[in-house]
Specification:
By secondary structure, the chain is an alpha+beta fold. The protein has 14 helices and 17 strands. The structure holds adenosine-5'-diphosphate. Adenosine-5'-diphosphate (ADP) binds next to helix 12 and helix 14.
């Protein structure tokens, strides 16, 4: 019986199945071909033909497996692939470069197995892995780029004279530059986090700053002492920023520590010097002041009287300066104490502004008071000192204006005293540092001063459970507001 007669006997369902199987073979996403022991191909599917650019006639019984691969592939086929196939009956996942009719090559993965029907025939599947190779190459390129970036970061940090590190959000240090390794002798000590090298007294401060920065999404900035390899502590300024890793989505910190030990020591020496100098100056000044007062009360030649008044004014200026320096020393040594008593803010402001009106007769000082009397717990002299300092500054830094506004208000059990001027104003950068010790902003003209008035004022307000803030616009003026707890009396 001929084959044709047999097909005629297939049921329609069988016929359909056969057609489906043939379609699957021909148009599968993989290439298929069958070859004999001598390598000659006797069957090949359409997919593989389309990749190779041959017709079925050009391949069947004319070309061998090794004709379809590059020279290297040919050698591999003869020396490895074919012997293995004969020996074990299958070869899996071998990479070949296939060569198309037009000479173009493309990477493939070949699986071959001995035919179930004949020991002399073999079947092979071919998977085009051009895309996979492309992805692999892209992945590799990205890996190299990341590696390059890491190397660049490490090389830069190696050259830096400062300590550089990165750490995870739980504080585990996962990168240290050479500076940190040698400073902390990290190779021989097990340093996993900052707790291991930060001075115990500074560690709490660091954690506090860290949490604050995390909450407000800002930088950490903290002065602290780090232990070196010999166990000695040196002062550093730690600055760190948080960033999110693109790859993992995890947050991590990168930071530097700048050695500020010599500056710190210099500042300490300066503090010591200022403390001694101000104490030494105070005694002779008090004596001079006493003699000047005596002279004022003595009948002297009228031509000399004006000299006495002028000298007295200068002595008062000198005394204010020395007192300020003494205050700084007291703040530094924790000895600035307040003597609190209940005071009417309305009266205190009226008296203070009145005395300043006499001192600055050309200035217009507007005092705005609420109808109700606002009572505050304060050290009268110290609060007066703050208000005088703020009004003095308002005048000093307002060369084009002679107006100062002082306003007292009460909000949520807090008394607010706002001192407004219409002067040069303050830049946003200066605003952040204005209350630091010895900080002076750049001004378009020369003004005398030491940069300690606002520092002392703030420290005084903090000791009243209050604070001081500033709002300013450059060229338009500034408003310094002091805030302290209050109660209203009728
Ligand atoms: P000093 O006036 O002696 O420099 P302060 O501590 O009182 O010290 O002030 C610090 C700095 O703040 C000043 O040097 C000045 O640059 C700036 N400043 C203070 N008050 C004002 C103001 N009302 N307007 C503009 N700048 C001000």
């Amino acid at each position: 019986m001929s084959q044709a007669t047999r097909i005629v006997h297939l049921t329609p369902q069988q016929q359909e199945l056969l057609e489906d199987a043939e379609d699957l073979y021909q148009n599968s996403p993989s290439g298929y071909f069958s070859f004999r022991r001598n390598g000659k191909i006797f069957r090949i599917n359409k997919t593989l033909l389309s990749w190779l650019g041959f017709t079925e006639e050009e391949v069947i019984d004319k070309l061998s497996f090794s004709d379809l691969v590059t020279l290297g592939g040919k050698l591999f086929y003869q020396n490895q692939f074919y012997p293995l196939l004969i020996m074990q009956g299958f070869v899996n996942e071998v990479n070949f470069e296939m060569r198309a009719k037009d000479g173009e090559t493309f990477p493939v993965l070949v699986n071959a197995v001995r035919s179930t029907k004949s020991d002399d025939n073999f079947r092979a599947t071919v998977i085009d892995i051009s895309d996979r190779k492309k992805y692999e190459q892209q992945l590799l390129a990205q890996k190299y780029a990341a590696e390059d970036q890491r190397k660049r970061f490490e090389n830069i940090t190696r050259l830096l004279p400062e300590i550089v590190w990165t750490c995870s959000t739980n504080g585990t240090i996962d990168y240290m530059n050479d500076m940190l390794i040698s400073y902390a002798n990290a190779k021989h000590r097990n340093i996993s986090g900052y707790r291991d090298i930060v001075h115990p007294l500074d560690y709490k401060k660091l954690l506090f700053e860290w949490k604050r920065a995390e909450r407000s999404n800002s930088e950490v900035e903290c002065e602290l002492q780090l232990k070196n390899s010999s166990g000695i502590y040196f002062w550093f300024l730690l600055r760190a920023v948080c960033f999110k890793e693109e790859e993992t989505g995890l947050k991590r910190w990168v930071g530097i520590c700048i050695n500020i030990d010599s500056q710190k020591k210099l500042v300490r020496k300066m503090d010591e010097f200022l403390s001694i100098a101000s104490h030494e100056l105070k005694t002779p000044l008090t004596t001079i002041k006493a003699y000047m007062q005596l002279l004022e009360r003595t009948e002297i030649e009228p031509s000399l009287a004006s000299y006495v008044t002028k000298t007295n004014k200068q002595v008062i200026k000198l005394q204010t300066l020395v007192n300020d320096l003494l205050d700084v020393s007291k703040i530094q040594s924790g000895q600035l104490k307040m003597e609190l008593s209940e005071v009417s803010a309305n009266t205190l402001l009226t008296d203070t502004v009145d005395s300043l009106r006499t001192l600055y007769p050309k200035h217009e000082m507007i005092l705005v008071l609420p109808q109700k009397n606002i009572m505050i717990q304060c050290d009268r002299n110290r609060l007066e000192q703050v208000i005088i300092n703020l009004i003095n500054n308002g005048i000093k830094y307002s060369p084009q204006s002679n107006k100062i506004e002082v306003t007292l208000t009460e909000k949520n059990d807090k008394a607010e005293i706002a001192i407004r001027d219409f002067g040069i104003g303050i830049s946003p950068e200066d605003k952040k540092k204005l209350f630091d010790r010895f900080y002076r902003a750049q001004t378009p003209f020369v003004t005398p001063g030491l940069g300690i008035g606002l520092y002392i004022s703030r420290q005084i307000m903090l000791r009243h459970s209050g604070d001081i803030r500033v709002e300013s616009e450059q060229g338009k003026g500034s408003t310094f507001t002091i805030v302290l707890p209050s109660k209203i009396s009728a």
